[in-house]
Design brief:
The chain is an all-alpha fold and 195 residues long. It has helices at 16-24, 33-46, 51-64, 70-73, 78-84, 94-114, 117-123, 145-156, 164-173, 185-193; strands spanning 130-131, 177-178. The chain has a single domain (15-22, 30-193), classed as Hypothetical protein, domain 2 (Endonuclease III, domain 1).
């Protein structure tokens, strides 16, 4: 419970930024390619770190990566990539920074094949949300057979930092799966809004 008497997923209760993200974004189906790429970029930087660390730096990432514009990012020069490694507002991991450009290029290639990246990623579930019914946060999987499948396919298409655990986190973030616990007020709301 929180001060507004709403029961939430236990993972978000320690930070107001987490609560806002949980209440307004996490698990809501996203079909917009620009927003999907933002999540993909942030999730790749999250690898090995906590999501709250990335959330706290989100606006810094937005500024550093040209508002997550994958068309611009796909054309980053080596000079720009090196400048990003010096930016204290983001996670300064050379491999992840380089992966942002690689993934932007791969993202554009997927768009050419499927018209939109959304068509591609949502095609794995026939554009339907998977509604899970977990009664506790510690029951949530870190990855699934579906995230394994998507991860493997993305890797074949040249994407980097897209292991199955990262992809499952992305599936949760963009609402391919609804992993709000059964007692959370958002579990039912998101399911109803998705019908």
């Amino acid at each position: 419970m929180d001060t507004d008497n709403k029961t939430r997923c236990k993972w978000c209760l320690k930070d107001p930024l987490y609560i806002k993200y949980h209440d307004e974004e996490w698990g809501v189906p996203i079909y917009n390619d620009e927003k999907i790429f933002e999540i993909l970029l942030l999730e790749t930087f999250q690898a090995g770190l906590s999501w709250i660390t990335i959330l706290r730096k989100r606006e810094n990432f937005r500024k550093a990566f040209d508002n997550f514009d994958y068309k611009i990012i796909s054309n980053y020069s080596n000079k720009k990539l090196k400048e990003l490694q010096l930016d204290p507002g983001i996670v300064r991991n050379k491999l992840k920074i380089n992966a942002a450009k690689t993934n932007a290029i791969s993202f554009l290639n997927v768009q050419k094949e499927f018209e939109t990246f959304s068509n591609y990623i949502w095609g794995f579930t026939n554009r339907k949300q998977i509604k899970n019914n977990f009664n506790a946060h510690n029951k949530l999987p870190e990855k699934t057979k579906l995230s394994d499948k998507i991860s493997n396919d993305l890797k074949k298409r040249g994407f980097k930092f897209v292991g199955s655990t990262i992809i499952y986190a992305q599936m949760q973030a963009m609402g391919i799966v609804n992993d709000h616990t059964l007692d959370c007020f958002r579990h039912k709301e998101i399911f109803i809004s998705n019908i």
